[in-house]
Amino acid sequence: MDNFASGHGRSLRRGGAALAALMLAGLGAAPVVQAVGRSEVPQRRVAHDGVRGELLKVTRVADLSRGEVAAFLAEGKIDTGTVRYGVTAYRLTYRTVDTDGAPTTATGLFVLPKTSAGRALGLVSDTHGTMVHRDYAPSVGEDFGRLSPYLHAAAGKAVAAPDYLGLGKGPGVHPYMDTRSAVTASEDMLRASAVAADRRGRALNGDVYLTGFSQGGQVAMAVARELSGKKSQFRLRAVAPVSGPYDLSGEEIPALFDGRVNDTSGIFYTSYFLVAQNRLHPIYKDPSEAFRAPYADRIEELFDGGHSEEDVFKVLPKTVKELLTPGFYERMKHPTGGLKEALKANDGVCDWKPDVPVRLYAARGDTDVPIGNARGCAAGLASHGVRAPVMDQGRVSHMESAGKAAPRIARWFAAR
Fold first, then answer.
1. I want to staple 290 with a disulfide (CB 3.0 to 4.6 A). Which of 11, 73, 150, 328 is the partner?
2. Hey, what CATH topology would domain 248-345 get?
3. Residues with Cβ < 8 Å from 266, sequence gap 6 or more?
């Protein structure tokens, strides 16, 4: 998840977070990430055989010098101490599968550091947080969604930042918080990135480092679980998610009702989750079963990928209690049926045994994704004999936890 109100009342498209506007307001005045001629690089297509990760198209979207990267990150309140190189960024279009396992396509941002061509690079998978408009996605939006990818690339690694299904230039509607499809889209983005690097004469050494923020933190843990112990072209080296909602049932949903999640973010997370998950699980037959009037009449169209966060906040009330019908409000406290299925399907990402180092970055001041999520994740990993320290970023907001953690993660990855 990601401070939902990210774009609330701000011109900068934040890629998912309400309170992001408070932290990154200055980024709205940042110079556009160098306007480049967006050159289409046609790729050879093969007869469709459903090959996951097959690279279909590469589009250059940015080309920044070291100084321009540093300026961009500084505007985003990100420490620039790890910036060593300029970067070139591309939008990749590749084959993957949808929520039913049927063939589809997705897009993502692939970033290369401007290092010597002969140097083999490690690859960072950087999964983003909550985004409501498809154009917020890293491969399209030239703002918040690119801060972390540029940071890691400028530190010397290649970066694969998937847009997920239904965001960026991918077809359909985004299945928000569907862990399974986020994992397949992320894993297939790694495969497409390896091909894209090779076609540009750049070598990857096979090492993969996983990070992600908010919703993307949960995705990073799930991708790590998928890659762990699996025969693959990639070697998992380290995992460092930030402020992820790893425990929806035990932490995130209860926190909506006990004050640990602020009302602004809670209203956004709840509405987005219910609408998106209802397409996958039988949560309600008609919106009026879950949402009060007049919200029930418009709630689903607000999350079609074409509305901004400003659009959403203009319609929604101030609190979850005002949004939901009395019966559904109580059902949220004690989930049953399709709602319980949806939560269960997206929990458990910390119930396994990693064989690589894991650090769980979080903040005790976070009122979007309470730090109890990270502590619960650490406890889950500990039950498998794995010590994963919770790296508390202090009494800072959700978005500030990302800004503080990202440079520290870049240093940790470099040291490995």
1. 328
2. 434 Repressor (Amino-terminal Domain) (1.10.260)
3. 256, 319, 320
